[in-house]
Here is the input.
Amino acid sequence: MTAPDNVIARKLANALMKDAEIGDTTALALGPGGRLGTAAVKKLMGGLWVGGTVYLTEDAVEFHPNGLNRAVHKDPDSLSVVLPLRGVTSVEMRQGILTPIIDIKTAIGTLSVRCFGAKGFAEKIETVRAG
Here is the structure.
């Protein structure tokens, strides 16, 4: 995945993906215990945290998985998310373990991303949204 055009800011991040599934090869490598652990984490967290990059452009917030996560998940293209800023209803912060979490809310759902420097990134999203 190449970076989108007109990037204002970017962060290495993890995004919570409720529909993320580990691939068959990954499942074999993890073994039964690893698969059970992954399923338990997914149930507890409401999805799997997927590593990649979150971008802020002039008109959207985008998340795209990194190469490792593209390799270990089923249907890696489904893990990319593009949220037009005009559809964002709020940007909220909450504390996570080690890094804060940004909840980018829309009328149809929420994209949660965690990264270092989250507060500054969230403020940039709000600034660009405000025009």
Summary: Residues 93 and 102 are 5 Å apart (CA to CA). The chain has a mean pLDDT of 91. The domain at 7-130 is CATH 2.30.29.30 (PH-domain like).
